[in-house]
Amino acid sequence: MPSLRDFPAPPHPAEPGGTVVVVPGRGVAPDWYRWIAEAAVSAGWDATLVTGLYDEDDDDRGGPRAYRTVTDLVRAAGLPDDRLLVAVGHSTGARVALHLGRALPVAGIAALCPIADFADHVQRARAFLPDYTDQVIAALGAPDLSHAPYRDRSPITWLDELDAALLLVGCEHDRVCPPYQTEALRKAASALGLPVRCEIVPRAGHFFETSAATTSVRAEVSALLIDWLGDLTDGPRIRMRNSAPLLGSHVRGRPEHLALRGQRGRLGQPGDAEIKDLRPAVHDHDVRRLDVPVDDGPGVCVRQRLRYADRQIPRA
Predict the structure, then answer these.
(1) For residue 154, what are the CA distances in angstroms to 122, 123, 214?
(2) pLDDT band at 263, cuts 50/70/90?
(3) What is the pLDDT of residue 288?
(4) How many angstroms separate the CA atoms of 165 and 159, rounded?
(5) DSSP string, 69-138
């Protein structure tokens, strides 16, 4: 049964920044995502973790049914209230978190290992996840972005409906949700004028594990999330409840915005020049890489080094 598990912030001298809704991915026990909720709580935010969201026997695949369920749960919890509402999701949960921004006034959305174009994802995953892709195709049909089931699950086709600051985190060695998908979302968000911060974690896989197997970069990603939450509470570009939206007519009317809406943010098919350009683009000036030193011993990396480039959410 879908529900929310609350992680209230401890007593804090200042009012908590708001509430962080954590949306897990499919096929992983929700408890694995406690570290995200705990990172938010350590930063003085209330956090709530969505549980029981997915039925492994249904064909929704993190689509409209999951979208409605999370939206209804958040509304039933009385959110958003007078404070900021933030959504954080991983993998399939990243798509659901992004969609929450279509239904509710969300101030920020952190998408960890997101998929921009679900049709492209299914097409490319056939080579190494045949059982998974066969199940998706049996449920949704052939992977084609022009088909409604794939558009519904492809944030790049409805990113223009969002009005939130974005944190996008990809992992260099993620084969499930490759980093070029993260970069595609970053490009689309930048073209739309959305405040966006993008990080690529080197040498890390889909669950933030490194090739050393004994080393996790979750501590570094937690620190990144805490830093970004601080930007949300300190930065002047965050939309508060009942205030003016981030994107006014001066942005939504720009030629590049209208052109992107007309294209619906198509990622392209394998072999397209546009796709080829995405892979080296992770080194663009406005994408930062989380420089993680790999620890030869057990435990997590003990320090974080960030290479900063242009910031779109100013620090106070």
Answers:
(1) 11, 13, 33
(2) very low
(3) 43
(4) 12
(5) HHHHHHHHTT-S-SSEEEEEEETHHHHHHHHHHHHS--SEEEEES--S-HHHHHHHHTTT-HHHHHHHHH
Mean pLDDT calculated for residue range 255-279:
36
- Selected from 3.30.420.40, 3.40.50.1820, 3.40.50.2300, 3.30.1120.10, the CATH number assigned to the domain covering 3-306 reads 3.40.50.1820
C-beta of residue 38 within 8 angstroms of C-beta of residue 100: no
For 87-124, what is each residue's pLDDT tens digit?
Answer: 999 999 999 999 999 999 999 999 999 999 999 999 99
Please give the Cα distance from 289 to 200 (Å, whole number): 5
Lowest mean pLDDT segment, chosen from 52-61, 161-170, 242-251: 242-251
d(C-alpha 52, C-alpha 224), whole Å: 27
Q: Is 298 exposed, middle or buried (0-12, 13-18, 19+ CB in 10 A)?
A: exposed
161 DSSP assignment: G
DSSP 8-state class, residue 253: T
Query: 220 with 301: CB under 8 angstroms?
Result: yes
Q: Give pLDDT, residue 10.
A: 65
Cα 131 to Cα 53, 93, 136, 138, 297, distances in angstroms: 22, 21, 9, 11, 35
Identify whether the C-beta of residue 226 lies closer than 8 Å to the C-beta of residue 43: yes
Select the more confidently predicted residue: 316 or 38: 38
Decide: 45 and 20 in contact? Cβ < 8 Å.
Answer: yes
Predicted model pTM? 0.75
Alpha-carbon distance of 180 to 164, in angstroms, equals: 22
